[in-house]
């Protein structure tokens, strides 16, 4: 019902545009996608399919066939377009077998290739997909590319090579690892900034939240997606987790485990909502953990889940802030006005879903249901779902954006949390960072798998 409310209103007021403004009942355009349109449609395709919303899926597919156009003169975020558009199209293809999705995914992948034309092959953050000219965000440390952005292409690009028969996509992302492996890591940690010209780190900031997050997720998932043959990805992941445990994971005086941020050797005792995905990541990686650490990784996942639940529980609206702190006597609470907002983000629910699948402890469904009730009470409006400006306030101040990832991630993870484990089972599917399921590439039957689908 939530998906239907979000989708029907998008269709009614913003059809074909990127996102919906549910209060003003009109389209919302984000500069992340340049002039490419239809982000909500492409992001929602697999959710519609999984929820068996067949009519809606059909109209979405027809829009993609007729109107999804990449021949635009505009600068896009390589990362956002990859995880939402390429990921969404790949997933829709693997679930439905409809050729149009494969064709569009490969076409878009080809348009992203010029982003890798840098001295090191570390891609630019921004690319004009008509001219092929790339650049980095002006605010990023000395012209650097961002770890989470260039580190979150691997899954999609490996599948692009798999589906197109063109090895260039996989080669581009394997080269990124080669560059990273040759660099010295401060304390075994990966800074968030890397200069694509010099191949050297920018500022020594480290985060498992924004700017870093999905890089670590993709190391683990690359190994899982390769049917556990990608030993390099596996080693990089477990080595990174070891360094994260040593240098970033701390316990508050109230007993809450959190992941701090590292700035040139100094810890900032702050955790972002984005960082809350890590609970699910630790659980997902528990099984392959070295030296009998499986139980320890599950425990770590459970502790992060609990901390993130506390960040929700300690607000008036029972929805978590963008970032929360552990200093000056506060725990799991946002202390700055510009960190008190909630934009329909999925990470906490994502962790509940993974923890539920691995432990079947009923509290994760309980916590997920609390989030559903809070979303219905505070974010649902006549025209869809809106983010909130301050989760500590007793009166809603809506931000008037229904993010495409609400349909792609938040609602999908909730649906999976309350579904049986055999819906998209983890031994066959790996979720990209936008919750788009991609099949594990089994060594024995590279092509048989997708034909059976």
UniProtKB/TrEMBL annotation:
Required co-factors: Ca(2+)
Enzyme class: hydrolase
EC annotation from Swiss-Prot or TrEMBL: 3.2.1.-
Record: residues binding Ca(2+): 433
Active site, per annotation: 80, 213, 322, 347
Keywords attached to this entry: Calcium, Disulfide bond, Glycosidase, Hydrolase, Membrane, Metal-binding, Signal-anchor, Transmembrane
GO biological process: carbohydrate metabolic process
InterPro entries (alphabetical): 6hp_glycosidase-like_sf, Glyco_hydro_47, Glycosyl_Hydrolase_47, Seven-hairpin_glycosidases
UniProt entry tagged with the keyword Protein transport: no
Predominant location category: membrane
GO cellular component, one term: extracellular exosome
S-S pairs: 276-308
Membrane topology: Single-pass type II membrane protein
Pathway membership, UniProt: Protein modification; protein glycosylation
Location in the cell: Endomembrane system
UniProt-recorded Gene Ontology molecular function terms: calcium ion binding; mannosyl-oligosaccharide 1,2-alpha-mannosidase activity
Primary role: Involved in the maturation of Asn-linked oligosaccharides. Progressively trim alpha-1,2-linked mannose residues from Man(9)GlcNAc(2) to produce Man(5)GlcNAc(2).
Family, similarity comment: Belongs to the glycosyl hydrolase 47 family.
Protein name stated in the entry: alpha-1,2-Mannosidase
């Amino acid at each position: 019902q939530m998906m239907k409310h979000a989708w029907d209103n998008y269709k009614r007021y913003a059809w074909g545009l990127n996102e919906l403004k549910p209060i003003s009942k009109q389209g919302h355009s984000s500069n992340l996608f340049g002039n490419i349109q239809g982000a909500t449609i492409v992001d929602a395709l697999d959710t519609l399919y999984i929820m068996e919303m067949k009519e809606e899926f059909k109209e979405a597919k027809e829009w993609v066939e007729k109107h999804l156009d990449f021949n635009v003169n505009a600068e896009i975020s390589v990362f956002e377009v990859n995880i939402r558009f390429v990921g969404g199209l790949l997933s829709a293809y693997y679930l439905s077998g409809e050729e149009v999705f494969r064709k569009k995914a490969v076409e878009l992948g080809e348009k992203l290739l010029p982003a890798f034309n840098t001295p090191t092959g570390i891609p630019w953050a921004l690319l004009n997909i008509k001219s092929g000219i790339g650049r980095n965000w002006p605010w990023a440390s000395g012209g650097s590319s961002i770890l989470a952005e260039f580190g979150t292409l691997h899954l999609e690009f490996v599948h692009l090579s798999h589906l197109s028969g063109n090895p260039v996509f996989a080669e581009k992302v394997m080269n990124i690892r080669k560059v990273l492996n040759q660099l010295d890591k401060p304390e075994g940690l990966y800074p968030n900034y890397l200069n694509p010209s010099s191949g050297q780190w920018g500022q020594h900031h480290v985060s498992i939240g924004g700017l870093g997050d999905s890089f670590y997720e993709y190391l683990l998932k690359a190994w899982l997606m390769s049917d556990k043959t990608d030993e390099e990805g596996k080693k990089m992941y477990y080595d990174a987790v070891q360094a994260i445990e040593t240098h970033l994971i701390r316990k508050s005086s109230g007993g809450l485990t959190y992941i701090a941020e590292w700035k040139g050797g100094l810890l900032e005792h702050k955790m972002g909502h984005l960082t809350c995905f890590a609970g699910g990541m630790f659980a997902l990686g528990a099984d392959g953990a070295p030296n009998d650490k499986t139980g320890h990784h599950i425990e770590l996942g459970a502790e992060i889940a609990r901390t993130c639940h506390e960040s929700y529980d300690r607000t008036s609206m029972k929805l978590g802030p963008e970032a929360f702190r552990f200093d000056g006597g506060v725990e799991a609470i946002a202390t700055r006005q510009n960190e008190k907002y909630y934009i329909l983000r999925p990470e906490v629910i994502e962790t509940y879903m993974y923890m539920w699948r691995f432990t079947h402890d009923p509290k994760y469904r309980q916590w997920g249901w609390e989030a559903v009730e809070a979303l219905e009470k505070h974010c649902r409006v006549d025209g869809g779902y809106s983010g909130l400006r301050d989760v500590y306030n007793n009166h809603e101040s809506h931000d008037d954006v229904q993010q495409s990832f609400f349909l792609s991630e938040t609602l999908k993870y909730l649906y999976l949390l309350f579904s049986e484990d055999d819906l998209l089972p983890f031994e066959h599917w790996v979720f990209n960072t936008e919750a788009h399921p991609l099949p594990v590439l089994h060594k024995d039957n590279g092509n048989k798998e997708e034909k059976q689908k």
